[in-house]
Amino acid sequence: MIINNKVLSLLVVLITTMGWSQSKIKVLMDLNKISNDQVTVSVEVPSSKATSLLYSFPKIIPGTYSEDDYGTYIEEFKAFDAKGNALKVTKISTNSWMIEASNKAKTITYQVNDTYDIENTHEIFSPAGSNIEAGKNFMINTHAFVGYFEGFANNPYELTILHPEQLWGATALEDLNASKTKDVFAASRYATLVENPIMYAKPDYTTFNVQGMEILIAVYSPNGLVTAESITPEMKQMMTAQKNFLGDFNATKKYAVLLYLADNSKPDAEGYGALEHPTATTVVMPEAMSKEELAEQLKDVVSHEFFHIVTPLSIHSKEIQNFDYNNPKMSEHLWMYEGVTEYFANLFQVNQGLITEDDFYKRMSGKIANSSTMNDFLPFTKMSSNVLVKPYKDEYLNVYEKGALIAMCLDIEIREKSNGARGILDLMKKLSKEYGTEKAFDDAALFDKITALTYPEVGAFLKKHVSGPSPIAYNDYFAKMGVTKTMVATDGNLFIKEQAPLLTVDPNTKEISFIEHAPLHPFLKNIGVESGDVLVSVDGKAYNLDNINDLIMWSMSLKENEEVSFVIKRNGAEKKFSGKTILPKEMIPGFQFSESSKIQLKDAWLKG
Q1: Residue 441 DSSP one-character state
Q2: Mean pLDDT of 158-169
């Protein structure tokens, strides 16, 4: 039976006015008994006088800006009374089940399917998905396993997980049970539970403390190629730098990084990246990635997610504070939640000496180029509030490009008006003190609040370029800091020349080869590689059509003077060529500091 939205809304109103108590929602998950690649979940039904009760899974979760319908992966949904008698249950939508005679209901049970091994059937971003691999790994993004009773979403939750003794649950939540095979976690409400993922695997983790914040790094590497210990030095350096950059900003005492490394030799997660939570980040990367590549990716990806402790954790609108998982109203301020966060993820690196000033300019120049391919006249606030529907959802990726550039221009504006004394980080700290984790702002009031905390020019910028349709003259803002547009040299790719690929693939043999008569870069020719050669392996790793993406990722991470070894096949015979890499140089539009009279202002911007 299908019920339309108007009827469903009426049902919700009736249900939510029945006078619910603040009884604890108790959930039991058993990871020992896996059947058909499914986990059984049981939930105690809270007592009420209502004769029907709605149980729902999210259509969408915070941070994804995508309608994913987690109820799709639920089967065998049943309800029982205290004597074990089955009660009538009606599925009324993709994500919701109506429990009849709910005043007699004692428990509900259902089976949960995972998403990692069927990624060709859906578009759920892997860090927001789930994995069920009996005895080895469970990636429990809680929204994929646990739903909420309508009217009870703000009740406290108690999640009990039974698990094999050899598996350990990595999470920022505190385990309230000392048993080696049973964990008990508490959450103040459903939203808190959703924001706390848990990853079960053979224990492989490290912990360290950064200025009073406990950091947990947990890794699942199915073939043992990567360990938590092997990536911790880089992670500790990065997160220490982030805390140094933030200064006295403290939003959480514990933060967990859950890293799932996908085995691409079988159906597995393919959506690489990370998803933020107030006290955790779920990360999915390919296990085949080299340690150096992985460290570089984690530096950028995890640093972005970590900065979400600033916004939206400490600064957010009522739309986020009271998030509706099935009928969401989106906030206007993605420029802040994602744009400021992405800007900080780049600014802290130059601020703390992890990258050079020229590297920073190149990154911002790249964002200008990327944003130029999108609708530069679309007001960002309009795109943000409508991001779930076309054509606005097609512009979403611009939050990481133009959104970061908006933050940069605001930073420059504040630095110029304050003679370098303050910047956008100072603004975010003031907003955090004004609001914080428990107090939300009104979407329509944010610009006035920012103007009051800064300068009229800042408010004018926001109205003209963020809620208004006017493109930003980025050159003018760089010029305020003594930085001018010019052509700059950058490292190119060994497998690309003049924007054309130098490699091709034979679909019949799956062999990768250098295109016949292609003008190879001097380094390749100097070590002996010729056009037409079949590429067999690089640094001992064999490549073909099946893992060509790994080869591309390797080429993108290759550094100048790095020792590299190619095995090629020519006329049926294999040959090996090695040498220290000399990357091709390309001239691209960029920025450089050129006005010495503004060096103090520029240093305050990048180093202050």
Answers
A1: B
A2: 97
Residue pair 432/438 in contact (Cβ under 8 Å)? The answer is no
How far is it, in rounded angstroms, from Cα 352 to Cα 567?
Answer: 40
Q: Is the link from the previous residue into 519 a cis peptide, with omega within 30 of 0?
A: no
pLDDT band per the 50, 70, 90 thresholds, residue 353: very high
Residue appearing with tokens 């990536």? 231
The answer to whether 323 touches 195, Cβ cutoff 8 Å, is no
Strands 205-210, 254-262: pairing kind? unpaired
Q: Which residue carries 């950064």 as its tokens?
A: 210
pLDDT digits (tens, 9 = 90+) for 584-600: 988 888 999 999 999 99
Over residues 278-291, mean pLDDT: 91
What is the separation, in whole angstroms, between the first and last Cα of the chain? 61
Angle in degrees, CA 440, 441, 442, rounded to 5: 130
The single-letter code of the amino acid at 188 is: S
C-alpha dist (Å) from residue 308 to 242, 304, 342, 344, 440: 12, 7, 9, 10, 16
412-447 pLDDT, tens digit per residue, is 999 999 999 999 999 999 999 999 988 999 999 999
Neighbouring residues of 384: CB distance < 8 A, sequence distance ≥ 6:
330, 331, 332, 333, 334, 335, 399
HSE, CB side, 13 Å, CA atoms: give it for residue 439: 6
- DSSP 8-state secondary structure symbol assigned to residue 482: T
Do 320 and 336 contact (CB within 8 A), yes or no?
Answer: no
Q: Give the integer Cα–Cα distance in Å for 265 and 311.
A: 37
3-state class (DSSP) for residue 70: helix
Which structure tokens are listed for 278? 């107030």
The tokens for 225 are: 């190629």
Smallest CA-to-CA distance from 566 within 530, 529, 532, 531 is with 529
Q: In terms of pLDDT, which residue wins out, 278 or 481?
A: 481
Report CA-CA distances (Å) from 214 to 252, 256, 432.
9, 8, 21
The DSSP bridge partners found for residue 570 are: 573
Are the CB atoms for 132 and 144 separated by under 8 Å? no
Catalogue the long-range contacts made by 385-388 (C-beta closer than 8 Å, 24 or more residues apart).
385/329, 385/330, 385/331, 385/332, 385/443, 386/330, 387/65, 387/330, 387/334, 388/60, 388/65, 388/66, 388/67, 388/328, 388/330
Which pLDDT score is estimated for 22?
66
The total of other beta-carbon atoms located within 10 Å of residue 441's CB is 19
CA distances from 159 to 29, 167, 197, 252 (A): 8, 17, 12, 21
- Largest Cα–Cα distance in the chain? 82
Distance of alpha carbon 93 from alpha carbon 83, whole angstroms: 28
Cα–Cα distance for residue pair 100/110, rounded to 1 Å: 16
Interatomic CA distance for residues 72 and 81, integer angstroms: 25
pLDDT for the residue numbered 6: 44
Short-list 37, 77, 36, CA closest to 56: 77
For 72, 220, 273, 324, 372, the CA distances from 334, given in Å and listed in that order, are: 28, 32, 19, 17, 18
Instruction: Give me the numbers of helices (H) and strands (E) for the chain, helices first please.
Output: 17, 30
